[in-house]
Design a protein that fits this description.
199 residues, alpha+beta, 5-stranded mixed beta barrel, 8 helices, 5 strands
Length: 199
């Protein structure tokens, strides 16, 4: 089990990063949009909580901001029909707190709005995890507003409201973030739109 990777951020791509450890090993790690948004520039040090997923067709490493995000990912992939890619898509589109709340409240419409998650899969998520995600919900006093740190999640929702599909909007935002061009929600939306209209 590879539970954590510390090192220098060697590369950023649209859906994954490469972290080079002090020993010279470079780990390719797939990350949700929220993690991509908060990564430092290439060349700086980074630490990610990681989950190694072993499948017949290969091994893959997934990275998260902290242990809580990693546990949420583990819960998701424990559900039949939810693989790592779908779990990452859900975490990118909804974030941990909003995703956990959607499952607990059995908000099938919101869950099935995530690219790749149909109504039956959303219902299975709610059935199997509704009572098991309490630790990931936002504290009641924080209200239902999206945390300010999740500018990329807010930008993703804004692009969806403009008519762009989740997949293409997610890809455009990842391209912006991979180019070390972050910013507030408005800036992210504007830069993503530039890529979407050119593409």
């Amino acid at each position: 089990m590879i539970a954590q990777v510390n090192g220098r951020l060697a590369a950023k791509q649209a859906d994954r990063v490469v972290v080079q450890t002090a020993g010279g090993v470079g780990y390719e790690i797939a990350v949700p949009l929220s993690v991509m948004e908060q990564l430092p520039p290439v060349g700086e040090s980074v630490s990610l909580a990681t989950e190694l997923v072993v499948r017949e067709d290969g091994w893959a490493l997934y990275g998260f901001r902290d242990e809580s995000e990693r546990r949420f990912f583990q819960r998701l992939i424990g559900v039949s029909g939810i693989g790592p890619k779908l779990a990452i898509a859900l975490m990118s589109a909804l974030g941990v707190e909003r995703g956990a709340r959607a499952v607990k409240e059995r908000n099938i419409a919101l869950l099935s709005s995530v690219s790749g998650i149909g109504k039956k899969t959303a219902e299975r998520l709610a059935l199997e995890l509704a009572d098991k995600l309490g630790e990931f919900e936002e504290p009641a006093q924080s209200g239902s507003a999206t945390p300010s740190t999740d500018g990329a999640a807010a930008a993703l929702k804004a692009l969806e409201r403009l008519g762009y599909g989740t997949v293409e909007a997610d890809r455009a935002l990842r391209d912006v973030l991979a180019a070390d061009r972050g910013g507030d929600t408005e800036t992210l939306v504007r830069r993503a739109l530039q890529r979407l209209t050119v593409g």
